[in-house]
Structures are given as C-alpha cells and as structure tokens.
Amino acid sequence: MQIMEDSMKNRIASQRKGRLQKLREMRHFLMTQEAFHRAPVLTLFRSVFWYWRRLLRMPTVVQLPRWNVRMFFRAQRRGFGKFIFAFREYYEPELVYLEKILPPGKVFVDVGANFGVYTLVASKLVGETGKVLAFEPSAESFAILRQNIELNHLSNVRAFRVALAQTRSQAWLNYGWDPVCNWMSKDRDPLRGNEGEEVQTDTLDQLLEENGVTRVDAIKIDVEGAEELVLRGAIRCLTAQSPIVIFEFNPESAALQGLSPWGARDLLEGLGYEFVILGECARSNNPEARPTYFNIVAIPKHSAEKFSGSFHLIGDRRFRELKNFGTSFGGGGCP
Questions:
Q1: Whole-angstrom distance, CA of residue 194 vs CA of residue 175
Q2: Which residue ranges form the domains of the chain, and what is each CATH number?
Q3: What predicted TM-score, i.e. pTM, was given to this entire model?
Q4: Is 196 left (phi over 0), alpha (psi -120 to 50) or beta?
C-alpha cells in the first residue's frame, strides 16, 4: 500500500512539474510576441476564447480588417491558427512589411503557403494588376489554402500543390504535430510509419518559366529548415530579378534535414543581398527574450536604402552573435 501511495505522489508531482514547465514555455513565447506587448489582456482573452471554441469543435473565420482579409480554420486545438487568432495583424511583423514592398502591380511568391495568410494579404496589396503564386505541398493545407482563396474571392492568385526544392523529383513530407510543422525528407522514415505523404518537388525557376512569369518582386519562404534548397532552385530568378526574400531562420529544423542553419543566408549574401530583422524580440541582446525561430528579410544591395526603412541592416558582427544564438540556444522550430 505504501509503495502505491508513493508511486501516486510521484506521478502527481511529475504532472505538476510538467504543467509548470509548459506555463513557463508559454510565458516565454508570449513575451517574444509584439501583439502581446501591445495588448496583453486582449491577446490573452483571444487565446482563451480560441480554446473555448476548440472545446466546442467550432470552426473559426478570423478577420484581418487592416487588409480586408478573412481566414478559415478547422476545429482543432493545436496549430498556428491560434496565433493568428490571438495576434491578428501582428502575427508576424513581416505581414505589415509587405505594405512597403508590394504596391499594386507587383508579383509575389509564397513558398510554404500553408493556409495562406501571406498569400491573402499579398493578394489584396498587389491588386488586380498584380499576381500571387502560392506553393503548398500538403494535401490538408492545400485544401484550406484553396478554401481561403475562394472565401476572399481572389482572382489574382494561382495555387500549386507542389514542394519547391533544388530539383524536380518526389519526396516524403513528414507530418508534424501541426501542418505548419511538416518537413521533407528524401525517404519515408520507417519508425514513423505512414505519418506523411509523398509529394512532387520542383524548382521555382522551372515553374516560373513554364507558367510564363517573367518578373518576381518578392518571395516569402517558410519551409521548416529547407529554405536553402528552395533558393538553390531559384538561382536564375534571384540573379536576374533580385527580388526581396523573406525567409525563416529555423536552426533545429535545418539540422534535422542535414542542412546548415545559415545556408540560406550565406547563399543570398553571395548574390549581393543585405539583411534586416524586423522583429524587436529577435533583435534583442537578451537570449531569454528571443524566439527560437524568426524571419530574416534579404534585400538586394542596390535597394537596401529604399526597403530597409527605419530598420538597421545587420552587419557581420551581429550575424556572428546570431550564429552563436542559432547553435547554442535551445528550443524547437514550431510553437
């Protein structure tokens, strides 16, 4: 009997410790978000409201009035949808930055479009004279992407169910705990069984040529650590057209695929790009305030003064500091 009581006490203590750890992780995550700093009470209220709707299994349509955009999300507790619901226009600072780089008539490429938040905002900004190309390999995410395009009655968006990479081939898309965390590998992992799907891969250069797209003004890439491979398949576009590139820095996800966390940055630097980090928390000198993944904006040197705005370009010294951060700071790539 005493052994059973001790075992029960240990289990309860372990569960309590686990809950406290999750609360600490959530607090750290919220402290790295601009939306929480701007309106902490409203952000917390929206987060609670999201979980309440999830418990009732209620699908959600999120309004982003700044751009007159609506987004549909299925009834699921986990996933990045809760962050868009809670943070709205401040989900990522790069969303607002699109207003600076995408006037009407521009062409935008969204790689790893997921449910389409960047696609939808870009579509509204470039207008009927502009164009948006959205690439998303996951069957589940692609279906919702198409639904969101139709929900907003967008006629200037073309969506492709394909994974952009360095070559045209097939690959295995491994399922993460949420579609936003899916990642690719050459072959299926036998230890994961059928937790994934086979997808077509292609290069951006090839698809632009096949679809008669002769100009690209900006590219956003969020492919869970494989950003370097996407860029290697877009060399002609990058060298001939010098688009602005918004790419995710996700060291842990890159390492899972055997890639350097700084492969994308080094490739772009070799092509004459300079870099800006928009998120205040990502630029912080305090490691506790930094998120474990964030976006970097790559701007061609000849356009740096025009598009860096009030943000300072990142010098080599700062990048060395971030490299140390990328290799030593813990944490996963997905929230």
A1: 9
A2: 92-328 (3.40.50.150)
A3: 0.84
A4: left
Contact predicate 59/79, CB 8 Å: no
pLDDT per position as a tens digit, 297-332: 999 988 777 776 655 566 555 555 555 544 333 333
Q: How far apart are CA 324 and CA 47, in angstroms?
A: 33
- Burial environment of residue 70 by CB neighbours within 10 A (0 to 12, 13 to 18, 19 or more): middle
Whole-angstrom CA distances from 78 to 39, 81, 177, 178, 335 are 22, 8, 8, 7, 9
Burial-class residue 206 by CB neighbours within 10 Å (0-12, 13-18, 19+): middle
| Strand 131-135, strand 107-111: pairing | parallel
Question: What SS3 state is found at 69?
Answer: strand
Contact 135, 164 (CB under 8 A): yes
Exposure of 211 in the CB half-sphere (CA atoms within 13 A): 18
Spatial CA neighbour of 159 closest among 186, 131, 182, 180: 131
